[in-house]
Amino acid sequence: MVVFPNAKINLGLFVTEKRPDGFHNIETVFVPVKGFRDVLEVIDNKTDESDHFSTSGINVENSTDDNLVIKALRLLRENHPIPPLKIHLHKNIPAGAGLGGGSADAAFMLKLLNEQYGLNLQQEELEENAARLGADCAFFIRNYPLVARGKGNVFSSIDLSLSDKWIMIVIPPVGLSTPEAYRNIKPKQPDKNIENILKEPVDTWHKNLFNDFEDNAITQYPELRQIKSTLYNHGAIYASMSGSGSAIYGIFPQKTDISWPENYTIWHGKL
Questions:
Q1: Per the annotation, does 103 bind a ligand?
Q2: Are residues 139 and 233 in the same domain?
Q3: Looking at the 3D structure of the chain, how many domains does it have?
Q4: Using CA atoms, how far apart are residues 148 and 142, in angstroms rounded to an integer?
Q5: Residue 236 labeled ligand binder
Q6: Within this chain, do residues 191 and 122 fall inside the same structural domain, yes or no?
Q7: Nearest to residue 30, comparing CAs of 13, 49, 47?
């Protein structure tokens, strides 16, 4: 079976408070970018009694044991009989970009195994398993726009459509770790509820819709500020860093051509 784990962007990301467990509560809206995808293929391994995992595309730096696809497989094997597999992951979504590529791979692996091997897990069970793998993994089980609070895994619905807009995602060759992203962050409640902000026209979002990680990221990598400025200068009606970075996206009313350095990864299309 072949599936296509997709990226996501964050509309706003407010770090609202430090939790007693050391994590942070956030408030954001996850939006899937279904045209920007990895490729994941899983078949039975009829050759021997072990799993075989291979990758292509963008270099996958972590070891097989640390890959979220393998962690998803091992998690389901705790309670379900799944035969030895041949797994191939073709990476298009860069790591460390705030686009949820690894989380999507894990969530889609859970959904694939559930369907391929008739595990009969319901959405809630899939989300519980996904949340054990990463804070935003559970979002990709539903894979439609959701407000996320808590650690990023407490969801509520939102009436949001950007289907008439174009989006350009620009990813420079820098990666930001989660500890880097949280450095110097001072949690606080946003001035306006995120649902109310997103009810306003897109071209007003820049007044109230912020990513609390963005200032830290721009301090470390000033080119991120230049990317955001370039998007606005070419007609973006809203631009922001996604998640903990380093991807910067712009929302446009029409298709737009912009020249970028060859070592940047660019995706341009409709949501």
A1: yes
A2: no
A3: 2
A4: 12
A5: no
A6: no
A7: 13
pLDDT at residue 151, rounded to an integer: 87
Same domain, 152 and 171: no
For residue 183, what is the domain's CATH number?
Answer: 3.30.70.890
97 is annotated as contributing to ligand binding: yes
* Residue 7, marked binder: no
Q: What residue type is assigned to position 98 of the chain?
A: G
Question: Same domain, yes or no, for 216 and 122?
Answer: no
CATH number of the structural domain spanning residue 146: 3.30.230.10
Whether residues 178 and 150 share a domain: the answer is no
- Note the pTM of the prediction, 2 decimals: 0.94
Edge-to-edge strand ranges of the sheet holding 24-37: 6-18, 24-37, 146-149, 154-157
The reply to whether 101 sits in an annotated binding site is yes
Are 225 and 181 in a shared domain?
yes
**Inter-residue contact 55 to 90 (CB < 8 Å):** yes
Position 250 scores a pLDDT of: 98
- Kindly state whether residues 187 and 146 are assigned to the same domain: no
Domain termination site, one of 103, 136, 157: 157
List average pLDDT for each run of 10 residues in the chain, which is 271 residues long: 98 94 91 98 95 92 84 97 97 93 97 98 96 93 96 92 96 81 84 94 96 92 96 98 93 96 96 85
Has 247 been labeled as part of a binding site?
Answer: no
Q: Please give the residue range of the domain that contains residue 206.
A: 166-270
Q: Which tokens in the block code for residue 261?
A: 């350095």
Question: Which active-site residues does the annotation give?
Answer: 8, 136
